[in-house]
Amino acid sequence: MATVACLKSDGIMPSQHLNAIMAYQSSMADVISVDKAGRIVIPKAVRDAAGIDERAKLLIAATEKGRVVLQKLDVESLAERLEKELAGKDVDAIVRKVREEVRARIRKDYPDLLA
Q: Has this prediction a pTM greater than 0.85?
């Protein structure tokens, strides 16, 4: 089960989002604070419900609407999927191609950067 946290950039969660989360499962929502170093503590009830322990990896992203989203990553299933998808393929060639495409995009979008 994935855990999603929504927080407006002003620190106040809109009531409709809070109500939706609370309706989903009351033990899954809590108000938390950010410390001076930018850290948060995910409440134990949320960690337990989402299967998050000290080995868990989380993807964090900020949306254009000021929301912060946390998504638990299942590293084992990602590794298995990559292993299957890349089986028999020349990974070095794929990496070279991606790097070439990135460099071309940088040259196009930021011509002064590489000058």
A: no
Please, are residues 66 and 8 in contact by the beta-carbon 8 Å criterion? yes
> Mapped to the 3 state alphabet, what secondary structure does the chain carry?
CCCCCCCCCCCCCCHHHHHHHHHHCHHHCCCCCCCCCCCCCCCHHHHHHHCCCCCCEEEEEECCCCCEEEEEECHHHHHHHHHHHHCCCCHHHHHHHHHHHHHHHHHHHCCCCCC
Q: Which fold has domain 15-73?
A: Pemi-like Protein 1; Chain: D (2.10.260)
Structure confidence by residue, pLDDT tens digits, 71-112:
898 888 888 988 898 899 998 999 999 999 998 988 888 877
Domain ranges (residues) in the chain: 15-73, 80-109
